[in-house]
């Protein structure tokens, strides 16, 4: 009997594929720490939970990033024992009363979505986050400048805001706003228009509009964080890559805050972080370039 069992085992190991390691399934994403060292979600989570502010820099049409942001929100809420505030670039300051009313259950879903000017992909990409806040009763803060003012600046510079009524200026970062054109993110914007573009008035206006968004988000997320709370801010990665953009203005207002960042990037391969992404953030979420998009 023992001989028969040994013969069966020997025969089985000779079959194709038997006894060989099973290849990994195709991963949907990989995580890396700054510098390019691979890391895990749990290790990242433990570090993020110790921060004052976490910036999740996303690609707006990436479903993997949106899914991970939802799970990260749930886990940070648990680890911080409910002391969490969620900031969203996707809602503008003038609709904050509607965001508050919906989060507390005072405003119905239909009216909220009709009046709050949600992004076209709100239903698939951001609604789960807002519903979670409504269910778990933590605050959601829209941090972005109303887009009409950013458009005015892009067309006519920051001076276009001078004539605004005080009530409308309350939706913006405090004016006058000083723009540092030497910030790497703004330098990169200028390079997109050509080597001498940083001196062109039109390009400077576009950079000023970007700075208005960054400064406004920094101003209101700094206001929104009660002592002892963690503020998780969801924004396009360009607003927080290289600890730039929003963080540059946040450091001016509150340099003591411990801020950590995530940046989402697309790569053909997921085994190694491309050199160009190694210093973009404290953690880099890598998603395949052929991942399905939400729009």
From TrEMBL:
- One matching Pfam family: Cofac_haem_bdg
The stretch of residues making up the signal peptide is 1-19
**InterPro entries, from UniProt?**
Cofac_haem-bd_dom
Q: Which CDD domains match?
A: ChanN-like
Alphabetical UniProt keywords: Signal
Q: Does the keyword Signal apply?
A: yes
Residue stretches making up the Haem-binding uptake Tiki superfamily ChaN domain: 44-250
Statement: the UniProt record of this protein carries the keyword Signal: yes
Q: What is this protein called?
A: Iron-regulated protein
**Source species, please?**
Hymenobacter elongatus
Traced from the root, the source organism's taxonomic lineage reads: Bacteria, Pseudomonadati, Bacteroidota, Cytophagia, Cytophagales
